[in-house]
Design brief:
CATH class of the largest domain: Mainly Beta
Helix content: under 10%
Number of strands: 34
CATH topology of the largest domain: Jelly Rolls
Distance between the termini: 47 Å
Shape: globular
CATH architecture of the largest domain: Sandwich
Strand content: over 45%
């Protein structure tokens, strides 16, 4: 939802939405976020078990009146609203930013912030001037972590040196983030199937225009990722929705390349629905970063007719169901990208973005990083069975075809074990491995198969 937010702080705003109101529950959050970042006196209430309607409970409706009269009715109420952090970091030193709101009537000049990173506890005292219904982005002291998967918990302590917060429900928040200091080695195959061995990160805005797992449209296997857009919902022109890879080591193989399959179609409206022909078409972009996401270089960018994999657009869609694109087998394309110019990069993050032109439907499948980027020779082939998973002392592998050897990598991409097989079955001793998540890369003459397992 788009407004001019610059005057958001001038009047109280009360937002009420049913828990089962799918359309508004997915579009209000980005609007609410913008209101908060513009210091609006805003309250957002989700009414349980209600669809797109108004509740019969008059007390719930009338609750807005005292808020309008006095939005800040308590003296001290500090809210930890959100984190302003990345999903993945490439260094063990992490800067954590939190967004604090003052919902009380008194200004906040000092705020005690307690935080816990995994099993490490610390306290930080912020000082400044935070007026009623204003927000601040506060940076905690630099965090040092040696773990791959991390949890940060933050809570409010004393306000203005001596005062306890009068509302505790909004005093604590936690977030998870990953630290990957070494890129995942080639080759890599991602088919977006269940239990994929790789992590992908999404910058979800909360709107209906976003990437999602799709088990209805796919080129191979049973899943892909998709992004859907239409003028029948809300205005999204220019919005960008992206998903990202974990850091990948391009130096782990000669002449690195990547490939992906995509299917896309756009929307076209003709008279009498519009006075003239009108096209609504999104743009798809692939970019790479070598500084852990600070900057990106575009590798591929197409939109509209140039991106479409069908000869004819989706014509005059008037319902949500009509807006989706269900590609035929011949309506998929494979795009290859030569990465040999970046072969020395050891922490490359790839970003896949859909840029809103208010219409279209795209699906991505079979992302491959390999020497020849062939989607035929790298897979997560389901004919390969590994068990038990989690494993304690040994891991069994069964395959229909003979296997040459297997390589085990840890979660940050370090090779920890190589096993010669030369058979259709193998038993791998994993007793010496530390507890955690590992990648198993199985090599045969026909293909390379990637699996993920847990060592208990």
């Amino acid at each position: 939802v788009y407004y001019n937010y610059s005057n958001a702080s001038q009047i109280p705003i009360y937002i009420f939405c049913g828990e089962n109101d799918f359309t508004y529950m997915t579009t209000i959050p980005p609007m609410y976020n913008q209101l908060i970042l513009n210091d609006a006196k805003v309250k957002y209430i989700v009414y349980p078990n209600m669809d797109h309607s108004i509740p019969n409970d008059s007390a719930a409706v009338y609750a807005c009146i005292p808020f309008f009269d006095n939005p800040a009715h308590l003296p001290y109420d500090a809210q930890i609203y959100n984190f302003k952090m990345e999903n993945v970091y490439c260094d063990t030193l992490v800067v954590a930013n939190i967004i604090i709101r003052n919902l009380g009537s008194n200004s906040i000049n000092t705020l005690e912030i307690n935080y816990q990173l995994n099993d490490q506890n610390a306290t930080f005292t912020w000082s400044g001037d935070l007026g009623s219904y204003q927000h601040k982005i506060i940076s905690l002291p630099v965090l040092l972590t040696s773990k791959t998967n991390n949890t940060l918990k933050v809570s409010v302590g004393l306000i203005n040196t001596t005062y306890q917060d009068t509302v505790i429900e909004n005093n604590e928040l936690s977030t998870d983030f990953d630290v990957v200091t070494e890129g995942i080695p080639y080759p890599i195959y991602e088919g977006f199937e269940i239990n994929s061995p790789y992590d992908w990160y999404y910058n979800e805005s909360g709107s209906l225009f976003s990437w999602y797992g799709d088990n209805q449209v796919y080129r191979d296997g049973n899943n892909s990722v998709g992004c859907f857009n239409t003028i029948l919902f809300f205005y999204t022109q220019g919005d960008v929705e992206s998903f990202y890879s974990s850091p990948i080591n391009l130096s782990s193989i000669q002449n690195p390349k990547m490939a992906f399959d995509y299917a896309y179609n756009y929307h076209k409206y003709t008279p009498p629905y519009f006075t003239t022909d009108v096209v609504y078409a999104d743009t798809f972009e692939v970019a790479v970063s070598f500084d852990c996401g600070e900057t990106y270089k575009t590798l591929f960018r197409k939109g509209g007719v140039d991106l479409a994999t069908s000869p004819n657009p989706i014509l005059n869609p008037l319902s949500i169901a009509e807006c989706f694109f269900i590609p035929k087998d011949n309506e998929w394309k494979t795009q290859m990208i030569d990465l040999s110019a970046y072969a020395s990069q050891q922490q490359a993050i790839f970003k896949f973005s859909c840029i809103s032109g208010m219409g279209g439907c795209i699906n991505i499948d079979n992302i491959v990083f390999a020497a020849d980027a062939s989607v035929k020779n790298i897979s997560t082939e389901n004919n390969v069975i590994i068990y038990p998973n989690p494993a304690f002392n040994q891991l069994n592998i069964n395959n229909n075809e003979p296997m040459d050897y297997a390589v085990i990598y840890d979660l940050i991409g370090k090779k920890v074990k190589t096993i010669s097989i030369n058979n259709t079955q193998a038993i791998i001793d994993v007793s010496s491995l530390e507890k955690g998540v590992y990648f198993l890369q199985i090599h045969s003459k026909q293909e390379i198969i990637n699996k993920k397992f847990i060592k208990q």
